[in-house]
Each structure stands twice: as C-alpha cells, then as structure tokens.
Design a protein that fits this description.
heterotrimer; A alpha/beta (313); B mainly alpha (285); C alpha/beta (337); B: 285 residues; mainly alpha; elongated; C: 337 residues; alpha/beta; eight-stranded mixed sheet; 9 helices
Chain lengths: 313, 285, 337
C-alpha cells in the first residue's frame, strides 16, 4: 500500500478575548490510497478545524500555527473537500453542469465543451439519474441527496487523491445518508481514492471507514482499525463514546460521561480527559501527550492503558 | 516525492471583534459630540452672559471676530450664542420627532404582524397611503390646521414617520413569531399581549433603536426645513432652521448668518449618524 | 418529590387527523396562482395511554413535525380531531387546555428567548398557571432544575451562556413547568452530540418513570426511539405506514419502507456495508402526491396494483401496517448494534 497523505502536524489557534489560544494541538496521521479514515469527535474537539486547516480554508480570525504534511508517491496529489451543507458549496447562479465543468477546467486545460462532456460523465459516476436532463438544473432545484452528489462530482472534477469530507451526511435523511455512504465507498474502491471522513457519529464512521481516529480537545487520543477501536477501545474516552452510542439505542444503559469537554483556554498539562475520566490518577495530570502503540496499527494516548487493560471498557 | 507545506500564518484578523470595537469608537465620538452640544447649549449663554434673544441694534451684521466668534445678525444678536442655545430647542425636538413615531409605529407594527390578515392589511395600506403623500405638503396642511409651531411639527412627524417603524417591527415580528421560543411561549398558555411584549418586542427592538438614531437626523432636517418655511418655531427663539432662513436675506454680504447654523445641523446630524452606525456595528443595544 | 399538585392524566386520541396547506405561487400581476395542495399529514389516527411513550419516525418531509404541531395546537388541522380524555382540543386553546400538552423543540439555539433568564422564563409560566403559591415559586424553580439535572445557578443565566445540552434541559424544564399530561419532543436530541444525546435520553426515561408523563418522541432516528418508547409509528409522506411495539417493528418490519429504514441505520457494526439498504431515490414532494401508495415509486416490491388505491393500516399478524404486499420475514437482530 502506498501512503496518500501523511499529516505530521496541525496546529490551529482560535481567538480568545484579545489573544488567541491553540484549539488543535496534537494531530498526526497517515492515510493510504484506497483507504477511508474516520476522524471522530464531539463538537469543539477540533476535528473540523483540522480538516479546514488541511484544505487551507480556515474560518476568519483563526490562524494556522503549524501545518506539515506530505503526499505519498501518488501522482497528481490533490485534495478536494465536500461539506455538510451542499447548497453552501455551490454558486446559486450557475447550472450544475457548469459548476462541475469549472472544476475540470481548473485542473486540466481543456476547452469548455470537453469540460462539459466530462461533467456529464462525472454526474453519471456519482449516480445522478438522467444526467443529461439534470445538467441544466439550478442547485436549488435539486433534492438534498442530489445536491450532495453534485458536490461530490465537483470534488471529483479535480481528480483528487484525497477526499476530505466534513460531516457530508449529517443533514441528510437516513436512507439518503446510506446512499451517499455507499457512493463514497464505491468511489474509494473504484478510484483508489483516500477519504478523510469527519463526523461526530461513530456509527456513521464505522460503516464507511477502515480506520478510526478519535479526537478530544484538540488531540488525537486513539487511532486504530475500525474493528479494534470498536471492539477493544484503548482510551476511556473512546469507550465512553461507544457506551453513549449504545445506550442511546437502549441496548445497554450506562452512566453518561459527566461534565463537558474543556475549552481551549483551559487546556491543562497532562491528559485533557482526566477531569471527566473515572480511571484518572495523579499520573494522568502530569504525563505529557504521547500516542503510544499498543497493538499493530493501534495507538492510544492513555498513559494508564497497560494497567487498565480491559477495564477501559 | 515529498512536498512539505509549512507556512505559519499569524493573521489574527479580528473580524467581528474589530467591527465591535470600531462600533464602540463611533458610539463614543457620536455621544461625545452630542453631550458637548448639550453642555454648550446651557453653558455658553450662561457663561458669556449674552442673552441669545437680546438685540443690539448698534452692532448689526458684525463679521466673526474675537468678540463675536460667529458674528452678529441683522438685529445685533450674537450668532455663536444663538447657534449654541438653539441646540436646546433642536436636539430634544429632533429626538421627539423620531421617538413619537417610533412608539406609534412599534405598537401598530406589533399588532399588524401578530394579528395578520385584515388588521395587517388595513394598517399597512394606511401606511402606504400616508407615505405616498409628499411630507412637506402634508406638513403645510397640518400647520394650516393646528397653526405653525412645535405641535404642527410633532403631529406631522408622527403621522408620516410611524410607517417605517411599523414596517420594521412588522417584518421582525413575521420572522420572530415563527421561532420556537415564541411557539413555546404560546404553548405555555401566555396571552397574545404578553407574548408580544415579553418575547417578541425585546428581540425586535435593537433594530428600531438603530433606526431611531438615524431617523433623528431626518427629524432634525425636517424641523429645520419647517422653520425655514416659516411654519415651525416662531421668532425670536434661537433655532437653526429659523436662523438659516433669516440669514438668506443677507447671504450675499453676511455669509456667517446662515453658514454657522447650517454647520451646526451638519455636526448634530453627523453625531447622530455615528451613534446609529455604532449601535448597528456593536450588534447589541 | 413534587410540591406542585398532581393532576389526573388522561389518554390522547388522535382521530383521522389531516393537515394540508395550499401551495401558491406568485403570478403576474399580483395574482396568486394555486399550484397544488401539500398534504403534510393525511388521515392519522392513534391513541396514547397515560404515561405511554410513542415514537414517530420518518424522513424529512414525512409530516412528523406537522403532526406534532397539530397535536400541540400550533398548526390547524384540515380535518380530524385531537382529544385528551373527553375533551376535544381545537387549535385555539384556552390557557388551561394549552397547559395539558407541551412541546420540546429541536433547535436549542432558537427555542429559548435570548433576552430572558431561565428564571424569568419559568417564573412567567408558573405565575400564569398559578401552579404554586407565589411564595413557593423560588422553591419550585429549584425543584424543576433538579428534575432536569441542572445546577440551580443556571436559573440566572441567559441561553447564550448555556451549552446545547443545557439549553435542551431548560427546554424540558419549561415543558414540565405547567404540569402537562403529554410532552411532544420534536427531534429534541437531533442537534446534540452523541454523548449528550445519551444523557438527555437517560433523563427523559427517568422523567417518564417518575412523573408518568405520556410522550410523543418525534425522530428520524430509529435507535433513539427504541431506548425511550414502547411503541413506534413509522410515517411516510404524511401517513402512518406501520405502527406497533418497538421491538416487534424492529425485529419484524412488515412494510418495505420500515425495512429500508432499519437497514439504512448506521450501526457500530463494522461488517455492515454502506449502501446496504438498497433504497433508491428520495421521497417525492408531498405536493400533488401520486395515486395509490405514496411509496410505490421507491418500493422494491411494488406491483402495478399499488397505484390503484391508498393502502390503509391493516392489523397484520403482529402489528398494524399499510402495505398491500407486506414482508413477513425476520430481520436478524445483528443489524442492530
């Protein structure tokens, strides 16, 4: 397997009163070609900021303090992004075919006519029924699912090797979400494209991704294969998140995680989850952040992982 | 093949914070100028000991000098003292001329927006009719009926300007009444007046206050225009519009008579506009 | 634990409820042109026993929110009735009848008045309904906070200072304040983080047990319903297509739409493949619906005869469903995490 994207460091500062504080501090991961990595975290965990820093579209007033990444051997390395709100990613005054053709022309120097033809092909590839009829439609005329498909086609128009997805199915209905996830999975397999999929929902990520990275308070605190992370989580936060997902569906009851995630200005030394963690000891509040490998392809930032063993669950 | 991107950007562009801060500065300057005007309106005549209405026929049409900063008028009255003293009349009337229609407009706009249907149609069409009347012609009619003076100005302002406030509030009500917290208030069994006054109005009011400050400028020029036509404040009360009017007779020879009161209107209007802008940019009143 | 007087709780009956809207487009000049009728809710009937929980599940545009608003009195039914006990509730309700059904809304950002503190918001309701004696208002407020598991300090906060989960708890406290008999939760947890969702659901379960409240829990999310309600109704384009005990419906969905919904639900099972629901397309517009079964254009088992008439709820062997060709197979329990 070849690496499609190797992210060594991302740090993002957000404004706080008159100064700024780091909201994303410790993020590093790799994605291989044809692999989908899920970046999971609750609101405020810094997952969206990370994605936006990678794409170079940080919101105003935030600043990128560090960004080191490299593409692997993949030819024509490029990133493209799809968003939660597809309508916001489309110019309302352009017809869908032209929106997609624009991306084609931005990447390769082809005449408009050829770009439009390519746009039709892409519309077919993302499963838009009757692309020829829909080509002249305006974005607002399409249903939510079709809009997201157009946005995916716009992203594909630039021939990306890595597709960044910012909760692209959150606004969609369950059956349509399933269709879009199916489409992304198919594109990953057909094109060998790498996918970085950000979501707050472990279940959605589990459905699509081969590997999962869990973010908490600006750090990746656990990363591993989907199977390992779901079955044998090695960080108490991941375990709590899994329990929350399960207790939501009434399958099992659990004590909900007390408190709420810390705000960036209150990030302390040591483990940032310690204040909410039932297994926290003094060592947790002093040990520096380190993502330690506990099994093949499975790493955790919990310093007590060896002592906790299966009790983490 | 490895590409490394490393560009630590330190652009802390404080978008909203900067606009808030700029808003605060505008507010400070605007209110500062208005406060200075009020103080001067009372202090200048008192300290200088010059009665703004006192005539000194031996000192008619004296050009601006150390003794008379803005010169004197055709009756020998000090233009500087009169210009300052006029703020006592113009400022409160400018504010009242905006405030009275604002109150009327808010009440009618709330009722129209919340009740909808026939009430809404009647109120808003009435507004359309009033707005289609040329304001100065309407004013002349009012002045003819109630006689020239403050009352004519306030009545005319109230009848003409409430429409904009009513439209402003109504449009806000149409948005707010579909918000869940207003639904929730209705579900809790609160009556319509309570829902309107406690849940709708407070959230619609900031817009009105911003507009109120801007409208005071219009009200000020309206008042000055009225006096200019001879339908507003009667002589010899110092009032900017009136001073400009009496100065026009001597415009060719004694420029200072109309210029200084004119500048006072510009200054006051500018200050009010800054207040309105500042309130708007701060986003919260 | 409640100082406030308890009141008798009666059963809710919804009978043949329909809500439709006339859709008009601006013509020229200034003449509105009627485009069609949007049937948001069509002929919905069900009963809800005191203290019972009913989940209403469906995709956006299926009419579940309109149904909630019609029951609460915020939308006017075109036909049909809502009854609580023997009292028929019209959409214009007196102070004492509006008290009986309360709602919790989806968006915690817009469901609380930004200019009022939690205390003044709740005090207003207690006073209007004279729930407790004037001198006991403060005590009752603290009790409400305890019920929704918030510190009493929240009382003096404005919504801006609260997190999404806290706001939603305040929304629940507001709904509880006038001592309702039924609470309708319209996607009340949809905008929260998963861990917060779990905590709010836990709270709702506790309240249901302690207060004996009836709840209608509107959601697009089958698994959330499962944790809270004994019964579930599945809606598609304004109609209930299947209704029954939650475990029953999940284990043995008879309607192809219910089946697809269950299959499309993401789960914590990594072996489940995306796109497995196999349901193509999206719900058509509720304006000028097709004849016959509204689901037939997307239905994997549709026959020509499905276009002939609108299927009504039939008592199946297990529970009520509205399909001419119900599926009678058992879905393996493994598809639910």
């Amino acid at each position: 397997m070849t690496v499609a994207l190797d992210v060594q460091a991302v740090q993002v500062a957000i404004p706080h009163h008159r100064t700024s504080v780091l909201a994303v501090t410790d993020v590093a991961f790799t994605i291989e070609q044809g692999e989908a990595l899920g970046l999971v975290g609750e609101s405020g965990s810094g997952k969206s900021l990370t994605l936006r820093a990678l794409m170079g579209i940080l919101p105003p007033r935030t600043s990128q303090e560090a960004l080191r990444l490299s593409y692997g051997e993949a030819a024509g390395h490029r990133m493209a992004m799809i968003f939660q709100e597809p309508l916001a990613a489309m110019s309302p005054t352009k017809r869908v075919q032209d929106l997609i053709a624009e991306g084609v022309m931005a990447t390769r120097s082809v005449p408009r006519r050829a770009a439009r033809a390519r746009a039709l092909e892409l519309m077919a590839e993302v499963g838009i029924p009757q692309p020829a009829q829909r080509a002249r439609a305006w974005p607002h005329e399409l249903s939510g699912g079709l809009r997201q498909r157009v946005v995916i086609a716009m992203a594909l128009a630039t021939d990306p090797t890595v597709l960044l997805c910012d909760e692209p199915t959150t606004a969609l209905d369950v059956t349509v979400q399933d269709q879009i996830l199916g489409l992304l999975d198919q594109l990953r397999r057909d094109r060998g494209m790498a996918i970085l999929f950000v979501s707050h929902d472990l279940a959605v990520v589990a459905t699509l991704c081969q590997r999962i990275a869990v973010m908490y308070a600006g750090q990746i605190i656990e990363v591993g294969s989907t199977h390992d992370v779901l079955r044998t989580p090695k960080h108490p936060y991941t375990a709590a998140l899994l329990q929350a997902s399960r207790s939501r569906s009434g399958v099992q009851t659990s004590r909900p995680i007390g408190g709420s995630p810390p705000a960036p200005e209150t990030f302390a030394e040591g483990c940032r989850f310690a204040d909410r963690c039932r297994a926290a000891k003094d060592v947790c509040r002093t040990a520096p952040y380190r993502l330690a490998t506990v099994a093949q392809q499975h790493a955790t930032a919990c310093v007590r992982v060896d002592e906790l063993g299966r009790d983490v669950l | 093949m490895t590409t490394t991107v490393a560009d630590p950007l330190t652009s802390t562009v404080p978008g909203r914070a900067r606009s808030r801060r700029a808003g605060s500065r505008k507010l400070l300057i605007g209110f500062g100028v208005l406060l200075a005007l009020v103080v001067a309106a009372f202090l200048v005549p008192a300290v200088s000991g010059i009665d703004p209405t006192a005539q000194h026929l031996e000192q008619r049409l004296v050009a601006p000098s150390g003794a008379h900063l803005f010169g004197t008028d055709d009756l020998g009255r000090d233009v500087f003292v009169r210009s300052m003293a006029a703020a006592r009349v113009d400022l409160p009337l400018a504010v009242l001329g905006a405030l009275i229609p604002a109150i009327i407009g808010c009440v009618l706009g709330l009722i129209a927006g919340y009740a909808g249907r026939l009430v809404d149609t009647v109120v808003m069409r009435l507004g359309d009719i009033l707005q289609s009347l040329p304001s100065y012609i309407f004013l002349i009619i009012v002045a003819f009926i109630v006689g020239p003076g403050v009352a004519a100005f306030l009545i005319a302002a109230a009848v003409i300007s409430w429409v904009i406030y009513a439209r402003l509030i109504r449009s806000q009500v149409l948005v707010l009444r579909e918000l869940d917290y207003v639904h929730a208030a209705r579900l809790s069994g609160l009556g319509a007046p309570r829902v309107l006054l406690r849940h709708v109005l407070p959230n619609a009011l900031p817009q009105v206050i911003v507009y109120l400050a801007a409208d005071a400028v219009l009200s000020l020029t309206f008042l000055a225009g009225l006096s200019f036509l001879g339908l507003g404040i009667p002589e010899p009360t110092p009032e900017w519009g009136l001073m400009i009017r009496s100065g026009t007779l001597f415009l060719g020879t004694s420029w200072w008579l109309s210029t200084f009161p004119g500048l006072m209107i510009v200054l006051t209007g500018g200050a009010l506009a800054l207040v309105s802008d500042g309130l708007d940019e701060r986003g919260r009143v | 634990m409640t100082a406030a007087p308890s009141r008798a709780i009666e059963a809710l009956t919804v009978d043949g409820l329909s809500v439709s809207f006339t859709v008009a487009a601006a013509g020229w000049p200034r003449r509105k042109r009627q485009v069609g009728t949007l049937a948001a809710v069509s002929d919905v009937s069900f009963t809800l026993a005191p203290g019972e929980g009913l989940g209403v599940v469906g995709e956006s545009g299926c009419g579940k929110s309109t149904l909630a608003r019609a029951i609460a009195g915020l939308a006017q039914p075109t036909s049909g009735v809502v009854r609580l006990g023997n009292q028929t509730l019209s959409s214009r309700r007196s102070r004492s009848t509006s008290r009986r059904i309360q709602m919790v809304f989806q968006d915690p950002a817009s469901s609380l008045n930004p200019r009022m503190t939690v205390r003044s918001m709740l005090t207003e309701i207690l006073r209007v309904h004279e729930i407790v004696d004037r001198s006991q208002v403060g005590q009752r407020l603290e009790e409400l906070m305890r019920m929704v598991e918030l510190p009493p300090g929240v009382l003096d906060q404005r919504p801006r200072a609260l997190s999404g989960g806290q706001r939603q708890r305040v929304g629940i406290a507001r709904a509880l304040a006038p001592l309702p008999e039924l609470i309708i939760l319209d996607e009340a947890i949809a905008s929260l983080d998963v861990s917060v969702q779990a905590a709010v659901l836990q709270l709702l379960r506790t309240l249901q047990g302690e207060l004996g409240l009836a709840m209608i829990f509107i959601s697009h999310d089958l698994s959330a319903v499962r944790g809270l309600c004994a019964r579930v109704a599945v809606m598609y384009l304004g109609r209930i297509v299947e209704v029954g005990p939650v475990e029953e419906v999940l284990a043995r969905p008879a309607h192809p739409y219910t089946r697809a919904l269950i299959a499309a639900e993401p789960s914590l099972d990594e072996t489940r493949l995306p796109g497995a629901a196999g349901l193509a397309g999206e719900p058509p517009s509720a304006i000028n619906l097709p004849t016959g079964c509204a689901f037939r254009n997307r239905c994997p088992v549709a026959q020509d005869s499905c276009a002939d008439s609108v299927p009504t709820l039939n008592p199946d062997a297990h529970h009520d469903q509205a399909c001419f060709f119900p599926i009678d197979t058992v879905v393996p329990a493994a598809s639910q995490a």
